[in-house]
Amino acid sequence: MYAALNKSGILIYAQNAEEKEHYVCCRCAKPVKLITTKTRKYFRHLNKVNNDINERDIHLVGKEIILDLLRNFSDVKEEYFLPAIQQRPDIFLTDQKIAIEYQCALLKIDSLEERVLGYQQFGIKSIWILGGNYLDDQIHKKHLKFISYSAKLGYYIIMLDSKRKAFTIFHHINFIGPFNRIFFQRQIFQEAELADILNFAPQNYRLNPVLMNQHFIHRLRQKNDRNSQQVKMDFFQNHQITVEDYLNNRYFVPIAPIYFYPAWQMACGQGKKLLRQPLLEFKTKKKPPD
To answer: Residues in domain Competence protein CoiA nuclease-like (predicted)?
Structure first.
């Protein structure tokens, strides 16, 4: 909102407001906070827990942080409309043909694929930075559809905490063990400069194989979903040995985080179906890097 009442009941426009003053909404008389960005000033309601940033503002503030990071680029456009594909990326570097999306709302894989492929058809690279509903200090299954790859970072995902003004790069993401536990390394950049992020060259620590011990065997016995049961039955019919006996004391090496089925199923003949990860190039998925 662009205006609010001060403590004297006088209507004050955001552009003339002072941060130290207290204001209330003109309609509901509830407290509002003055928000100041590089490009504008406005009021917003305080949320129930009085956080500095509510859900609606997370995306706006995050874009401002990214724009500030790119301030030395002359070709930066905000909400630039691309008529050929009817898409409007959050930020677009026109000279380099790079679209940057700050994704805060949950997004279905079909929509992600459509948007990424739309960019790719016109030679536009898209970079997706996660926040809002995706913000976390861990990597979970819901994040994997946004995974990218580079020789320097391995498989990676970038997140931005708008409240803390902190970027987190989750890099060298792998699946480890028989059940595809997600392993990652991470680096947090608090109010960093672009050069700090671009020059980040982490060491890739070598991961040891994981032994299929009795703890994992017990977990495997508890797997009673339809697909697991089918794999178990097919394997026994073909080899006259249970998957538990076959996999006992077997070592599982780390694998790329691109597979739909867990490693134990693939070790027992299940096909190597790939996750839908449109930001990965086909050649990367076809032959994952070591």
So the answer is: 56-189
H or E element in which residue 223 lies: none
Q: With beta carbons less than 8 A apart as the criterion, state whether 146 and 137 touch.
A: no
| Locus of tokens 């205006």 | 3
For 142, the enclosing helix (H) or strand (E) is none
What is the second-level CATH architecture of the domain 55-198?
3-Layer(aba) Sandwich (3.40)
Query: Of 116, 49, 61, 144, whose CA–CA distance to 279 is shortest?
Result: 116
Q: Is the Cβ–Cβ distance between 275 and 258 less than 8 Å?
A: yes
| 251-287 per-position pLDDT tens digit | 999 999 999 999 999 999 999 999 999 999 765 555 5
* 165-219: pLDDT as tens digits: 999 999 999 999 999 999 999 999 998 889 899 999 999 989 999 999 999 999 9
